[in-house]
Write a structure and sequence with these properties.
The chain is α/β, with parallel strands linked by helices. Helix content is about 35%, strand content about 15%. The protein contains 13 helices and 13 strands. Helix 6 runs parallel beside helix 7 and helix 10 runs parallel beside helix 11.
């Protein structure tokens, strides 16, 4: 089998209204490239990633290669997704079977919010409950996080789980501990990256010693995960990277008795959502809802095939990724 052609479709799909209003037109600044990779056997695969403009380099690297001879596990990106799709179809097996053993028939996913005002966060929490989600990750800021969580809990109820992700904006250990103390009465499932890592992880270890709130570094490098475990600087992890690195990192966390969640795609569309779902299915300790957020777009471009139900996405069992591009919808949102 040989790769003969790569088609590229650059798309711009708005987010759902509750997210879009906070960042109007942002999707136009970050278009998403979808590809369709053809072979001489009539089998094609679909992939997603990047902002387009790299078709010539993809063709130079991949045209003429045999998908069956590529090591898929140690790479990521649109071509790797498409090759998992092709190889799975050629062998008649779902992509997860090429990645490892299946541990989940359906995988947990969480609701998500960008930085908002507290009342807007609360409205999104109420929306999340109506959509069946049990956990809500939010992009937090130190000046309003306590009021935000109070209003979210009032809107969604005390059992609604909240993952606080400041993207390091809590700044330092003392601020993070002060905020954690204020948030301890609520159902906070984790603090993700409250402040910058420092060599030795000393401050992350100190944080864990002074609060019951779980601490979750967002990592994709196995050496970093190992160092955090050795330093007793984490309770769980948000993991990214290739299939191989995600599985390696998750395996180390499992050996240390820690759960993980995955962000191998994030704010993508349905093709990357399918890929992330297959990866998730192979990781037994990925018990925390993932950041696979294809459902936060007004159209996932796969016909809603992986729409969450009660906070779970069913793992496809059809060959390959198990989804197809909705070409009519894709043309509607195509910008290049």
């Amino acid at each position: 089998m040989k790769i003969t052609q790569i088609e590229e479709f650059v798309t711009a799909v708005p987010h759902i209204p509750s997210i879009e209003k906070s960042r109007p037109g942002h999707y136009l600044e970050q278009p998403i490239s979808l590809i369709k990779v053809h072979t001489d056997k009539g089998i094609y695969g679909v992939g997603e990633g990047g902002r387009g403009g790299s078709l010539a380099s993809l063709e130079a690297e991949w045209i003429g290669l045999d998908p069956m001879q590529v090591n898929l596990g140690d790479k990521g990106g649109a071509m790797i997704m498409a090759l998992y799709d092709i190889v799975g179809k050629a062998l008649g097996v779902p992509a997860w079977k090429l990645m490892g053993s299946k541990h989940w028939d359906k995988v947990p996913v969480g609701w998500w919010s960008p930085p908002l005002e507290p009342r807007e966060f609360a409205a999104m929490a109420e929306e999340g409950v109506k959509r069946g989600f049990k956990t809500h990750k939010l992009k937090a800021r130190p000046w309003n996080i306590v009021e935000t969580v109070r209003l979210m809990t009032k809107a969604a109820g005390p059992d609604y789980g909240i993952i606080v992700d400041p993207n390091f904006t809590f700044g330092d250990l003392s601020t993070s501990l002060r905020l954690a103390e204020s948030l301890e009465p609520y159902n906070i499932e984790a603090f993700e990256d409250p402040f910058q890592y420092l060599p030795g992880w000393h401050q992350y270890r100190d944080f864990r010693r002074h609060t019951r709130i779980r601490l979750a570094p967002h990592l994709g490098d196995p050496q970093m995960v190992l160092s955090a475990i050795r330093a007793e600087a984490a309770d769980c992890f948000n993991l990214g990277g290739s299939v191989e690195s995600a599985q390696t990192c998750a395996g180390m966390a499992a050996a240390a008795g820690m759960p993980v969640w995955l962000q191998v795609v994030g704010l993508g569309l349905g093709v990357s959502g399918a890929y992330g779902t297959h990866v998730h299915a192979t990781i037994p300790n990925a018990t925390i809802p993932s950041d696979s957020l294809h459902f936060t777009r007004e159209n996932d471009l796969i016909g809603g095939a992986l729409t969450p139900v009660d906070g779970f996405v069913s793992v496809p069992d059809a060959p390959g990724l198990g989804v197809e591009l909705d070409m009519e919808a894709m043309e509607k949102y195509r910008v290049g």
